[in-house]
Amino acid sequence: MAAAGIPSSWEELPEDLLGQVLRRLPSLADRVRLRAVCRPWRSGAAARRHPLLPPPLPWFALHDGSLVDHHGAPVRCGPILRQGVHFCYLAVDNLAFLVHHDGGCSLMNPLSGLALPLPKLGPAVRRAIDSSTVYGRSWIREGHVKVKILSSPVGPTPDSLVATIITEGYSVAVAPGKDHDVTSISLRPLDGLTRISDIAFFHGDLYALTDKEGLHIMKLDVCGLNPNFSQAFHPSIADDPKQQQIYFCDDPNQPQIFDARDMPPGCVVLRYLAESDGRLLMVRRWMSFPPIARLGDHDRTWRFEVFEANLATIPGQWVKMESLGGQALFLGLQCSKSVLASQFAGAVREDCIYFMHRTFDQPYRQSNLGNPMDPLADSGVYNMRNGEITPLLPESVMAELQRKRQFLTWFFPADE
């Protein structure tokens, strides 16, 4: 007979002990397996009973709509892309942003299968395309570059705001999730010539980063059920005309950013916006490329620079950072996110940038590559403290993902 107070079977493990085990499992798949052992474990290990659990490690979203965990194992969930219904999708945090064949848009939780229509966004994109002299109606389905969502802390709701960069970065569309009686925005927010590199919601407003490193703000009033838009972006940090997208170390007409002895012959610079621990960051990603290679085929990341937006001055300015203050950045074309590294029980390194291969500015074009190159060729972990780049994943996991021959982006599952 079991002594008093001592569990007589594994089923009787105390809830606090199950919580200790869960806190040491950074993988959502492992937590699901633990909860599947028996009914008492499933009840005792429910996420709502342990609100201080660290967020699970990110998964990888593949171009065909499937998800795999950080071990390279497929995740069982409802199909994101359904033949004849969805044209394409982008990964947005823990959701899939779907573009339908008729140009309509919606958000979907791949784990639950629940979908949220975005009735205002499709028409906003259509208006932006109709006002363009370059892009035709086919871009209503193909023109989405990046999507950001402003929602409540518990997740996207019908009152969420959704912003998307379209027409290769020359327009932005903003719309509420529910069919409110408000006008959605589709506009060329800047001078019609400057390209938008990234967008981010920060302190309730929408910010746009240009390829000249200018920062522009759209003030949003999201109080109540009828959000109001200011109808325009306003400059917050001025463009720097000296900034380029492509640099050559032997070009006398370009500023020498680095010592020519350290700089590759040719460099491509990508720029990202990310909110991190209450700060708005700009990340420069420096990639080398062989002069005779097609852009994207053999790019290799060799350096990152991180800057914080100082918005207390007028105009604002970028201030270079030497560390992430204990945070880690997961950087991607479709989805970027900052996390507190110490929450992940050693599975995520602080002051590091986790990055994956980039090929094109338009994810949908990857399906036309035929036999694509190694999808993880330019991936790794950049340490801001010493500038070293180490492999993104163990060799066995890398090999498993490389066999899929698809380009990947981050997906952050929610432990519900």
UniProtKB/TrEMBL annotation:
- What Gene3D superfamilies would the database entry show? 1.20.1280.50
Question: What domain of life does the UniProt record list for this protein's source?
Answer: Eukaryota
Domain F-box per the UniProt entry, residue ranges? 13-53
Coiled coil, from the record:
none
In terms of Pfam families, this protein maps to: Beta-prop_KIB1-4, F-box-like
Q: What is this protein called?
A: F-box domain-containing protein
